[in-house]
Amino acid sequence: MTPRDEHKAIVVRAVRSHLLSFNYKRDCFTVIPGEYKYAITEYLAIPDLSRLARVSRYFREFVTPRLYHEDSLDERPRAIFWAASVSSREIGLDIIMNVLDLAVEYGGDVNLTHHQSEPFAFYATPLHMAAVRGEIDVVKKLLEHKADPNTLGKDFLHDSRISLEPRTFELKICNNEVAIASRYTKWRPLFVPFVMEHKKMIKLLLESGASPVLAITDHGENESTPEASNINILHILASQEMRQYTDTANVSYFKKFSSCINAPIPRGESPLFIALRHGDEELLKDIIANGGNIETVTEMGRTPLIQAITHYYMARSPEMRKTYQDIIAFFIESCGANVNRHPDPRVTYTPLISAIAAIPSDLKVTIREIRATITPLIDHGADLNDVSSNGLTILHALFRFICTKQQNDTLLELFERFVNQGADINRILPEGYSMLGACIITYNRQPAKFYRLLLKLHASLTPPEVNAVFERWIECPKFRKTLEFNFLDYGAYVTQAAVNSAYRTAIDKDDKLFDLLRCHFPNVTIAETIATEALLHDANHIKRFTFALKFTNFNGGFIHDNGNSLLHSIVDRLERYKKYKGAQAKYDAKAVILRGADLEATDDWKRTPLDRLWELRDNPDCSALRLYLYDLRERRKFLTLAHEAEQISQDEYEQKWRELLDDAL
């Protein structure tokens, strides 16, 4: 150890010994020789010097420069932040001011951000701490020392030295969206005083250059700080109901900071939309008078007019509803708000459609109250046939509301009123249906009163939906009996496949329907298929087989997909069904022969019906049919020879052939 190190160690041990046994009634350090005093200030650590300054008036002045200088060089300087964080009533304002002056004099930085990780992470500058505590004199002193009124801090309300709870602060904002947005922003010193309405602090900070933007969106590491989409003074004023929105000079903040008047909160609304929640007409007028954009659009796709209409229906009292009615009229008449489709594609509905969409599901509104929002729109040019960005008109919106909610005569009256005023009842829905078609296909003609109203107002179907409606018309007898609806008017649009399907239903279930179809839709392409299926698969085939034969275009020469003619199918039925007797088989064979069945037609195995019957000759019923067909074949040969020799005419030939069929039975 060098002589200098030995000297330093002796001084430190001596001073520490005196400090531990110090009698506070006497300042024994004052009489220490000068060279020792210099050595002490040079060699002692900061904690020891700090304790020494507290017990000796001489040393307090002697070591203070080094204490504050060393603190300013520390990674986490304490003096200035401590002075800004304590209560002047408890510590004494003179002490706090002295500490601030000394700290700045010896290199302290009033704009240095203090970081803390436990028990709650936050960061703030001294100005944040003094402003949030309401220490107006401390704030003035910091500003005198060039504190920046626009520094950023975050989550410092969690600091135990601050009595204001974060939840209390958010409730004071009076707007949940703004409060939530504040959690994801960095705050300026003015934010808390402005929310808590500390007028002197607000005036002081604004006069010192504080920005009207109170909080900046926190973008994380890739930070960007544009002034738009942050929280500004006007958002708070618009949120806090009944708050005075002028400064101490009685100048409107909305006029003073009009550059911020249309800025939205992060992922939220502008001051105009926020103020609409309270229905303060005077405040809204002040916002618009100072540049509030009546056509601005929220991220939810609403304009101020649409938002006012929504609030009208949400109002719980007649007084508030009347207030919003006046606001709607003000927006339309005085501000010239667009009453038709907005050019911004984010706006899904037109104002007219919004007036329907916002009707509460419990329908606790009268026709007069609904008209109170709709009439001003129509009177100022709202087009009843205007199409929204999602393809809806006012009638479409009302149609959906009526069909999906409980029936209400008020809405039916409104629907009829719109049609009488020129709304197009036959404009196609976005799904591709007409309103009449959707009422039938999707909602099964419910509500019934509304369905009848559509027919009364001459609603019609479109060709693409006719088949689907025809299917329901076939399935429901009550539907067919609706006197106001005549499906036959759409008969030209019914496809053959739909007609064929209808006949199948009629043949299986409804004789009257069959007669109705045969009268109005006589053309069918499946009669022969139905006849064949009846022969092959029905235990009692007579009904379907007889119905199929009634078609004038029935082709007895039909060949089924299985390769069999109708006569082959009769033979197959004899083989399959024991109760199917030869007498009935002969009558069925006569019926198909009359309609053109060929006695010599062959199946996939090149067998004629007679060949098949010969194979089944042990079956008496098959023998009866075989003899009948054989007799017909042989006797027809002579009849054909006479016709070919021109001994009989074509008409005589056909008559004799019919007689022959009966005679052979």
TrEMBL record:
Record bears the keyword Nucleotide-binding: no
Keyword annotations: ANK repeat, Repeat
ANK repeats mapped onto the chain: 125-154, 267-299
InterPro entries the UniProt entry points to: Ankyrin_rpt, Ankyrin_rpt-contain_sf, F-box-like_dom_sf
Keyword Magnesium (UniProt): no
Protein name: Ankyrin repeat
Organism this protein belongs to: Trichoderma arundinaceum
